[in-house]
Amino acid sequence: MKKNTWYAKPNLVVEPLFDRWYAWSHLISPATSAMNVVNRHLKIMDSYIQNPHIHAAAAKNPKMRGGPFVDLPVSRVEEVKALRAATVAEKDYHLRFAAAIVELNQLLKTAARGFSMDTLYSKVPEILRGKVELVYDLNNNPSFRFFEPLLYKNECYHEASQSLALWITNNDERPFVLSTPRLDEPNVIHVEVPFKHPGIDMLSRMRRIPGDIEEIAQAFNIREEDRALFNTFFTQEPPVAYNRYEGDKIRMRYFGHACILVETKEVSILVDPVISYHGYSTDVTRYSEAHLPDKIDYVIITHNHQDHILFETLLSLRNRIGHIVVPRSGNGSMQDPGLKLMFNAIGFNNVLEIGEFESVGSGICQITGIPFIGEHSDLDIRSKLCHHVRIGQYTLMFAADSCNVEAKLYEEVFKVTGTVDSLFLGMECDGAPLSWLYGPLLSEDMPRDMDNSRRLAGSNYERGKAMVDVFKPKELYVYAMGMEPWLEFISSIKYTDESNPIVQSNKLINECRQNNIISERLYGEKELFYEIEAMAEL
């Protein structure tokens, strides 16, 4: 077998896993990881083991999509039992850590009455001592914060839980990520390496630059019995060459969901990367990794949800990213883990952290953080930003899932930014309840009516219209709807024409068009060009 003549196939899936579950940010940040193992993974596995037939039926019911149902046949019960047993055996520290968090919350609830908490430190569960600070807010409500960097320095950060699953795909279908573990399959190779492993970058480069199969096999310690399958993941057929954009305009390419590439001949910016594989027949045309530049100057992250921080895409692009720009977090709170810490831990050493109205960029490009309100179930979460991007005199605002519950906010923002040329707005305005994503972090169950009132929802027509009225864009693009088929395994969303987000976004799009504002709901792929010297009205 000739050396340095092999490319990774374009439909080679490199799926990051944590304890054989699809890896997302709350499984890497140590405190949220412990709570998710106990209150999501173990609970789901216990339920499946007790009632596998119910799970098998629910997983096939479209109305149950996104629910806590394992999408595995009844015949896999013994394998799930084995995974559960391995989790309990390997995660004793994390199980005790999660129990201690519940105990500490109960201690504060009963013993912290507004007086000094100095004497309570000796009552903090031993596993948490030296790792938390006890605090009140100004209304004497007690809480605690983690000294989060310390959690990455001890047993709480369990790098050995990280691994990869490699296989060739011929479609967009996968089980929903939050409810189904990845068991052994005949066409899948599991590679036990942490996410910071250099072999990941080596493999990613082989999507464009030929390499040596023997070298990558050694880097991943591929077993001899897996070598024949491993070799099928590579080809000697060169990929489609990427043509660097050399035009004089701004080129915008939509890759699906909230992922947008903004390019000039001088700079490239990629927002919330979620990239489809390619090399197989599809009904929906899409851009893929083949349409990304060799060097991406800035990757922008809007917020810490699993459909906006996709490790599967980010790890594959790590060797190409100049800087990854993340929102500053809430300084140690359970619900708002630090993104810079997390990315550093998994091998991203080029992270820039910004807050509201702070900027990065150089030359003709400036990226500014803008307040992002709502969509986080009223939790105190600071690691979320919209982004105002100025290239030359052209301005774009990526509002992501910001839910404009207080229109006065963006009236104040407007005084700083002025009008924008192109506004990108998420309108998934139904959203899941708080417990769907943040439930594992709660120390006690929330009443259902309360839970259902606090949604992970973006702007509806009225709230979207208020943003349009304020910023007066020449173009409005509704995006971040989770509609594309390659997003379904992450978002669990499947709309009909009668779905509320479709009805609400159609209403806003039609009104914008009536007012001579170019407007469209993005889907699949889209390419647009802008004049760099276009000037927004101030």
What this model shows, in words?
This protein is globular. The chain has helices spanning 25-28, 30-50, 52-59, 77-90, 92-111, 148-151, 198-205, 213-219, 227-231, 311-317, 339-345, 407-417, 434-438, 448-453, 461-471, 488-491, 500-514, and strands at 7-8, 12-18, 21-22, 132-136, 142-146, 162-168, 189-191, 234-235, 250-256, 259-263, 268-271, 296-300, 321-327, 351-354, 359-360, 365-371, 385-391, 394-398, 422-426, 475-479, 518-521, 526-530. It starts with 6 loop residues before the first strand and ends in an 8-residue tail after the last strand. Strand 18, helix 12 and strand 19 form a beta-alpha-beta unit. The strands form five sheets. It has a seven-stranded mixed sheet, covered by helices on one side. Strands 15-16-17-18-19-20-21 form a seven-stranded mixed sheet, covered by helices on one side. Strands 3-2-6-7 form a four-stranded antiparallel sheet, with helices on one face. The chain is built from 17 helices and 22 strands. The model is unreliable at 534-538 (pLDDT under 50). With 538 residues, it is an alpha/beta fold.
Condensed summary:
With 538 residues, this protein is of the alpha/beta class. It is built from 17 helices and 22 strands. The chain is globular.
Observed structural traits:
538 residues, alpha/beta, seven-stranded mixed sheet, globular, disordered C terminus
Stretches where pLDDT falls below 50 for ≥5 residues? 534-538
Q: Tell me, what's the shape?
A: globular
Portion of residues in beta strands equals 15-25%
Helix proportion range:
25-40%
Number of helices, where a helix is a run of at least 4 consecutive DSSP H or I residues:
17
Write down how many β-strands occur, each being a DSSP E stretch of 2 or more residues: 22
In what order do the strands lie side by side in the largest sheet?
14-13-12-11-10-9-22
> Biggest sheet, open or closed, and with what strands and sense?
7 strands, mixed
Mean pLDDT: 96
Cα(first) to Cα(last) distance is 63 Å
Rg, Cα atoms, Å: 23 Å
Structural class: alpha/beta
